[in-house]
Amino acid sequence: MIKVVNFLVRSIQPYNIELSWEIEPTTDDILDYTFQVYRSEAEGGPFEAITPIFKDKYYFIDNVLPADRKWRKYFYAVEVKRPRDSKEYWTQIKHIGEPRNPYAQEISRVERAVFGAVAGVRVYVLPIKTFGMWCSCFDVVSKQRNKANCLNCYNTNFVGGFHNAVETFAQIRQFTHQDSTEEPIVRQKAGVSIVLTNYPIVKPGDLLIQPDENQRWKIASVEPTRLGGSLVHQNTVAALVDRDQVEYSIKIENFDIFRPNHPDALMHPRTAL
Ligand SMILES: [Zn+2]
Question: Are 118 and 200 in contact (CB under 8 A)?
Fold first, then answer.
């Protein structure tokens, strides 16, 4: 039976609550398990299911909270089931990801609007898997990889390699534009500075794909800017992914893309990722 860990809640904007959780690395087949998110206004329940049953997703945004949410307190839980032998596991949120600061949220909201309208480019963020089902290329006992370029986990050691994508807008602050020339150009592995808002949270190893240009970057480092403990934006340094790198063979069609600002997401806002 898998175990849920690092279950966190974070307020992104006044009406957007982000939940994220992980599972302990496992040799079980994750697709044997189902998840469902519940919410209550009291720690002891009763809990109401706020998502359909889903599989292999570890991220959820609750953005259809009642309008008078301000004075209410919410408690969340995730239920994990393995239908084949009726095993169940229930875990409640115990940790707040960060304090809620309305000023930080407002700055992020404005920045997100500016990036989306004029100053940024559309990117898909693919969070690297740091938990999940071990890939067969990784020996759990010796902690060794037995393949140089694994197309099953993209060298992350976890099956699938990355979680589903989130669409957002980012600002690329240094980018050496390469005009196409007749001679093949030697690409430089120069670091590029990419700025993201407070959502989604990124970490080293995450992949950014700019779909309009088919450019890919891998995040090398992240420096968060906070206000009163609440995330405002994220300054990252990222390296361009070369054609010979394993991340270049990732097919975006194999991932669901969550578009928080898309009309579909507003009509069906309770989406687990
Ligand atoms: Zn692998």
Answer: no
